[in-house]
């Protein structure tokens, strides 16, 4: 089952993303490579993802991706108590990226998401 979501999000260190841009594709972070797919979140999931996996980390980017452009390589699989998360089996083509935005830390140490 594919939820009706047009945009999914990847949180990534800026240096890792810059390497991907130079290479012409994003193959994932070390955890993605270990798991065999690229982890993404929906808009409703990205705040929890940031808290669980990126707490206190600076120099991050929030990458918005056109989910339908990923075709059948994008799978929705259960995680965290049964919620469906988007997982990409293969590299992320850069032409599927809609926007790349800074994800700075706020004064409270939490990430400040764009509106």
UniProtKB/TrEMBL annotation:
Family matches, as Gene3D superfamilies: Protein of unknown function DUF952
Pfam families: DUF952
InterPro entries linked to this entry: DUF952
Protein name: Uncharacterized protein (DUF952 family)
Organism expressing this protein natively: Aquabacter spiritensis
């Amino acid at each position: 089952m594919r939820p009706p979501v047009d945009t999914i999000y990847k949180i990534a260190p800026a240096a890792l993303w810059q390497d991907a841009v130079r290479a012409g594709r994003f193959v994932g972070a070390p955890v993605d490579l270990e798991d065999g797919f690229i982890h993404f979140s929906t808009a409703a999931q990205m705040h929890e993802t940031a808290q669980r996996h990126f707490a206190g980390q600076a120099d991050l980017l929030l990458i918005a991706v056109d989910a339908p452009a990923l075709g059948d390589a994008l799978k929705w699989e259960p995680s965290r108590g049964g919620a469906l998360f988007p997982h990409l089996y293969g590299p992320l083509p850069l032409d599927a990226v809609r926007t790349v935005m800074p994800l700075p830390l706020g004064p409270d140490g939490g990430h400040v998401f764009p509106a």
